[in-house]
Amino acid sequence: MRGLLGLARRQATAHRAVPVALALLVLLVAGVVTAWPRLLAGVDDRQVTHEIAATSPLSRDVVGVLPTEWPRLDPPPPGSTPYPPEVEENVGGVHVALEELRAAQPEPLRTLLGEPSFSLQSQPAEIAPPPDPVIGRQWLHLSVDPQLADRVTLTDGRWPEVPAPVDPFAGLTDAERMTLSLDEEAALVDAAIAASGPLELVLSAPAAEVLEWEVGTERRFAGNTVPALLTGTYEVDDPGADYWDHNLYSVEPHVVDDLNIGTSATAAAYLDPAWDGRLPPGFPVHVASFRTQMWFPVAVGALTADDVDAAAAQLVRFTTPQPLGEAGELGPAPEVRFASGLGEVLDRVQQQQAVTSTVLTVIAAGPLGVTLAVLLLAARLLVARRRPGLALLSARGGSGWQLRAMLALEGFVLGVPAAAAGALLAVLVLPGRTAPADLAVTGAVAVVPAVMLAASTSPRGLREGRADLGGRSGRWRWVAEVVLLALTAVAVVLLVQRGVVPGTGETDVLLTGVPLLLSAATCVVVLRVYPLPVRALAGVLRRRRGLTSFLGSARAVRDPSGGLVPAVALVIGVSVAMFSAVLGSTIGTGVQATAWQSVGADLRLSGPIIDEDQAAAIAGVQGVAEVATIGDAGTVSVSGERLDLAVADLAAVRDVQADGVGIDRLPADLPTAAGDAVPAVLSAEAVEALGAGVGDTLQAAVGDGVTLEVVGTVERLAGAGTTGDVVVDAAAFTAATERTVLPRIALVDVADGEDPTAVLERVREVEPVALAQNPAGDASGFLSSPMAGGMNAALTVAVVLSLALVVVAVVMTQLVGAPARARLLAVLRTLGLDRRGARGIVAWELVPLAVVSVLAGGLLGVLVPWVVLGRMDLRALTGGEEQPGLVVDPLVVGGVLGGILLVTALAVLVSTVVSSRADVASELRMGEET
Questions:
Q1: How is 742-775 classified by DSSP, letter by letter?
Q2: Residues linked to residue 203 through DSSP beta bridges, in sequence order
Q3: Are strands 603-606 and 199-204 parallel, antiparallel or unpaired?
């Protein structure tokens, strides 16, 4: 036994380059499989933050409203709020109730909900303007906010004091009040108003300037004699803070210039937060109705990707009606229902995570398969180098399990430290988090060398033999291959019949399993098919003069270097690169199509009215080829269906959108409508709702009614925004209805050769107010998201890793057959074979298999996207509402395939040159000794 161990130790120290290479390979793979989930977790976390941050505060924050009542809650214990005692006595109960409600929520919702805020605001009350005002009608929302003083700076005057309204009928019984005349009652009210004093308030400095109201002066509310005193003005410390989105008209007033009612302005006027809601006598009843708005600001970076599912479910439960606090001396607790648009954001994030998880699982499966093939090659290479010693051990009585145990131990010694070092390196270099389940894959990588070394070792395999002489396993191999092909066909049929299924967050076994089955089936077909043309070629070369081609082709059939393993590595490695290219083209084109569907032209302007003069001014800008405007005629009844009606110059819109990417353009040959009918183009939704088609007439309830004739259909008019169910010709519509629809959308076609960004800057000089969009900007904005960046990074890593492993596989394949090849070349060199002939024989061992495998991998790289991506909901990756079509860009695919062929050819060339250098003397001497 001691001799056996000593021989095993000497075996382990021999041929050190091979075990070192195996250890480095394990270190690399372990580092990648450890870093991969950390990278994806970080991308998912950043995407959650990105999606939440991109939503407006009014949409994402959790908001509740008490619409018609002052919040009557019992005062909390003194000192339980950050407010002064008098404010705490008044509204502190609301603050405490909101804090208790937040504290009662489970994680992660509790952390997601920020510190609660609330404010009270009345219905608008009209205030009398000064003489000769700039703003004719002025409105105030009386507001109470206990946090106002902490968020603004008083710039003039002082803070208001609490009103002290006097009851005009104090001391009178109901019977005595009933006997009062109208004049007596009015006199008592006037006296109470005078005794109560003015209602003190503060305004923002911009609001006071717009309302022309000086600090220290009084104004009267319209319709009564109640005075209001402006005691001070303030400036907001941070006007861009999300807080002010919930406090309307607080930063600056809202000014409206209406041609019908004139100019008006609305501002928020703040009273002392200790005010209990009692208004002076004679104040308008409708103004005395206050709405209490409460909100929890969402902490944008609080959620990780792992928290999304739980947070979404908890948010649904939180938005059901629930009491605000507990019943007390002031009565039962009011019931409030919170609402938030955050649920839609979390649903979208869940869809994104489901799709990206599935896509990245498919992508990761490719390099994983190549890795296993390369590790198996490395194990076979190590066993080949150990074969003489193992054969000697076997001859001296070593059993099969002893030989396997010895190599398995060596595999553990090589794999476990290397895997641990790779995992540690990944953790140190890449920030993120690693779940225990993720380390299970790293642990599996650590034991792979031991398993493969043991599996590659058997006493029968230690003897030299002919690879082309079949054994008893040939029948079972045929059975296994037929079963695999049948299973692949069934899985593909099931996936195609199932169609597109939205992501659910669960691992889709069928969707992720089909690419693996297709890869395995392709490898089987390659190994069965490729010997046929090579054997036929060998027969042709057999009748010709020359040794190199005939012997090389014969060895390619009789003794293919590496067999199945290099075929797997090449086929899967090439298919991963091709799949990544097709996926990238599909997503990129889908994002562009989504941007074009939203924008509708090279540039899109929206917002203010764009009349004919304004459109002409835009058309005159340098670099603008044409302008088409779209007007919104509102929602009207069309043959009994409520549809959005858009008015546009159909020919101009068609010309502007001629170069659109991925959009359904207006037909080029729109027919004219018969008689006085107005030409109309229907969207797909309108066609389905009306059951109408080209040539049909419809009745639209506009004015006295107008007849529409359908002259074309589109999926959806790009750039029309929320309108566009029915698009009618502007000139014909105006003639039929005597009504002009002023457009608010302009689609701008940029002249060929002009830079859209530069043209946009020139257009802004003509129309600085309108919201400007361009497809390139929208697309680049979406592609700059963490999800898109992470997807590109993952695709790049997968392609680079696969190609690197392909090169390693080619080199190792040549090294596996190096001993037998070296003996053959040594004999042939003594018979006169030159180095060029030797390189030709070596190249024949791998070139046929490499060429067939690369071509098969290229076809597989196009087939897998067609099968998989066509049945996967990719809308989350493009940001659109339509499923993107599969895009196979010939330039991209050709470039990737050419690069793969070049890399493979260089690998074959280098390994061929190295493998053809055999030491004739040493090989012949070893042959004599054996």
A1: PP-EEEEEEPTT--HHHHHHHHHHH-SSSEEE-H
A2: 233
A3: unpaired
Q: How many beta carbons lie within 10 A of that of residue 220, not counting itself?
A: 13
- Mark residue 281 as left, alpha or beta (left: phi above 0; alpha: psi -120 to 50; beta: remaining): beta
In this model, does residue 501 exceed pLDDT 80? no
What is the pLDDT at residue 281? 66
909, 850 contact by CB (below 8 A): no
Q: Going by C-beta distance under 8 Å and a sequence separation of 6 or more, which residues neighbour residue 578? A: 857, 858, 860, 861, 862, 893, 896, 897
Positive/negative CA dihedral, 880, 885, 889, 892: positive
Residue 721: CB partners within 8 Å, gap ≥ 6?
A: 606, 632, 745
Q: Which two tokens stand for residue 149?
A: 């003083």
Pick from 102, 202, 98: nearest CA to 144: 202
Which token pair is 197? 């004093």
Rounded Cα distance between 467 and 820, Å, is: 12
Q: Are residues 9 and 397 in contact, defined by beta-carbon separation less than 8 angstroms? A: no
Integer-rounded Cα Rg, in Å, for the chain is 39
pLDDT at 500: 67
d(CA 425, CA 28): 10
For 299-316, how does the pLDDT look when each residue is reduced to its tens digit (9 = 90+)? Answer: 988 888 888 989 999 999
Lowest mean pLDDT among 185-194, 747-756, 919-928: 919-928
Give the C-alpha separation, 736 to 678, whole Å. 7
* Rounded CA separation 750/615 (Å): 14
Parallel/antiparallel/unpaired status of strands 254-258 and 262-270: antiparallel
Per mean pLDDT, which range of 467-476, 597-606, 868-877 is the poorest? 467-476
Tell me how far apart the alpha carbons of residues 628 and 658 are, in angstroms, rounded to a whole number: 12
For residue 697, what pLDDT is reported?
87
Q: What is the DSSP letter of 870?
A: G
With cut-offs at 50, 70 and 90, classify the pLDDT of residue 440: confident
Residue type at 459 in one-letter notation: P
Closest by CA position to 625, among listed 592, 593, 669, 658: 658
Length of the chain measured in residues: 930
CB 351 within 8 A of CB 550: no
What tokens were used for 298?
A: 């969402």
Structure token digits, residue 829: 């060199």
Between β-strands 726-729 and 678-682, what pairing exists: parallel, antiparallel or unpaired?
A: antiparallel
Q: What Cα–Cα distance (Å) separates residue 453 from each residue in 406, 442, 447?
A: 9, 18, 10
Quick one: DSSP state of residue 166? P
Check if the beta carbon of residue 724 is closer than 8 Å to that of residue 646: yes
Q: Is the pLDDT score of 378 beyond 50?
A: yes
Burial code (b: 16+ CB inside 10 Å, e: under 16) for 263-291 equals ebbbbbbbbbbbbebebbbbbbeebeebb
| The two three-digit tokens of residue 920, written as one number | 């004739």
SS3 letters across 453-482: HHHCCCCHHHCCCCCCCCCCHHHHHHHHHH
> Which structure tokens are listed for 554?
């014969």
State residue 930's pLDDT score. Answer: 44
Instruction: Let me know if 904 is exposed, middle or buried by CB neighbors in 10 A (0-12, 13-18, 19+).
Output: buried
H/E stretch holding 605 reads strand 603-606
The DSSP string of 726-741 is: EEEEHHHHHHHHS-PP
Residue 732 structure tokens = 């014909």
Confidence (pTM): 0.76
- Quick: pLDDT tens for 710-769: 888 888 888 887 777 888 888 888 888 878 888 888 899 888 888 888 888 888 888 887
| Spatial CB neighbours of 795, under 8 Å, sequence gap ≥ 6 | 363, 580, 583, 584
Closest CA to 191 of 281, 277, 284: 281
pLDDT for residue 12 is more than 80: no
Q: Are 595 and 929 in contact (CB under 8 A)?
A: no
Give alpha helix (H) positions in 54-180: 57-60, 85-103, 109-112, 148-151, 174-178
